[in-house]
């Protein structure tokens, strides 16, 4: 028997100001981002959340596929009306990554960390990720679509093969099944808290928490940005969420997550 999400059960435990103003749950759709894009051009409650039990064309950054067995994950998109400076766009991704990481740590007592800018890892294996897209509207405030995917109760044999990073699920790492409704409520609660911190422009505080969780700091790596490759050592995350890389020639360069990708 499938463990199905019920919107009333998720909303019942929420005490948020913006996130979760409305919760809609689908059984099977192409992706929550696709549905959110259509809703963004209609009237909706700010902070609306769209869940689905199954996606046929889920995606992550750079168009990479994201797959998860039906009713085994948490797959959702949040719609937010928000005006943000272009150089702070990456910070929105980091804010959400911080909130997810914090929720997993506090709710499940698992040592979740962030691989810049958007991957959530446990013991070096990916358990989830964040995708932020901007939906522009003529003469209107832009809409941010915040897509989140988490492997919750996926078993070892159900995990996708041949992925960029090793993958896992919360249930595998916890060695027990997770109550998805309780986790969904906790996630929305924490996302609301951190989004309000972002809205109040406490960027330094967000960056400090991001640094605390980010395992990319100190790594030697190569970043692809605007058709060029840059190699060096990661020394920090800037207050607007950019990755600070000391290049092999000694120069320090900052990369923004919406343009740059780490090469593997």
From TrEMBL:
Species this chain originates from: Candidatus Jettenia caeni
InterPro entries reported for this sequence: aa-tRNA-synth_II/BPL/LPL, Biotin_CoA_COase_ligase, BPL_LPL_catalytic
Pfam families: BPL_LplA_LipB
Designated name of the protein: Biotin-[acetyl-CoA-carboxylase] ligase
A GO CC annotation given for this chain: cytoplasm
Domain of life: Bacteria
BPL/LPL catalytic domain span: 8-199
Taxonomy of the source species: Bacteria, Pseudomonadati, Planctomycetota, Candidatus Brocadiia, Candidatus Brocadiales
Keywords for the protein's UniProt record, in alphabetical order: Ligase
GO molecular function, one term: biotin--[biotin carboxyl-carrier protein] ligase activity
